[in-house]
Write a structure and sequence with these properties.
heterodimer; A: 209 residues; 6 helices; B: 158 residues; mainly alpha; 8 helices; 68% helix
Chain lengths: 209, 158
Amino acid sequence: MELDQLKTLWKRADEKLPTLSDSHIEGILRHRSQRPIARMKRNLKLEIVFLTLLYAPLIWYFSISFEKIYIYYDIILIVSAITFLIYARYKYKLLYKMECASCEVKSNLSVRVNMLEKLVKLYFYWGNISAVLGYLISVVISYIGLFTEQGKEIRVPSMLEITILVSIGAVFILLAYFVNRWYIFKLYGQHIQNLKTLLLEMDKKTDQK
Amino acid sequence: MIQQHKGLIYKVCYLYAHDEASKQDLFQEIVIQLWKMFGSFRGEAKISTWMYRIALNTALTDLRRRKTKVDLHYTDQSNLDIEEVQYDSQRDEEEKLLYRAIAKLSQIEKAVVMMYLEDKSYEEMEEVLGISQGTLRVKMNRIKEKLRLLVKIESHGT
């Protein structure tokens, strides 16, 4: 079969295309996009709403509380909320820049790879920072809580206590580091590699055999 | 606009999606993207060029291995179905053979060959893909050879 014949065959396929009515198109447009970026944007918005609903009442409750100690909880919550908002803003900016559906395919792929790599770095740093912050916050809250419950004055922890807490923290953070790295690679590693392969193929004039 | 160029969308779906559910997903995504992006179309390029970009970008950048699953909202709504083209004659068998041969090309080669088969100029291919015309010409010669060979192999195989 010659290539001109292929062209004829290809064009003949147009005659047999399924019918597509306006109501079909309207039906499709009623659905939300399921592309990864669209889903990530929606998830980010949900995370912000969820954290606002969780943090706002807690911050309000601790701020009106007569117990002086609760002011520390408030500070911890406010610091972590601000950190999350910085992370969310940066992530949203990356997701926004990642979409250029009407750009040339090559430049879109290149932007996508670039932004995905930045996003992966962001996830990686955020994951590690969250692990450290999470551990510190839980240690501080448990430590303060322990003394408050027993009605004792809070004292500076002993050297032994500090050593134990630091050792547990080091193991936890190290574990979180490796789990984080493995999970991010599992989510994005292969996809980024595939996009890079496409990009490389676009530049190559010859086949790789 | 979608009605007028539906062939383009269907063909991208046939080339880049491997099963019926993926074809429907991809078709839906392309239509949604076209709808969302239409406001930003300023007529600097031909409408077909713009549509090719959106369709190929959607197909290529979101290509991820899908888990096989039954998605009920498609079976519930027959109006979203993309029916398989019916092959009922010898000539149709040849068409099937062509699709099988193209399916064996790489993702980028599929995009180039699709535009070639649609009689698009190298200039338009460059506008869509962002690959220089020189590189496209070299690629095209290779792809033609490869496609000829693949069609031969496929026809012997059937």
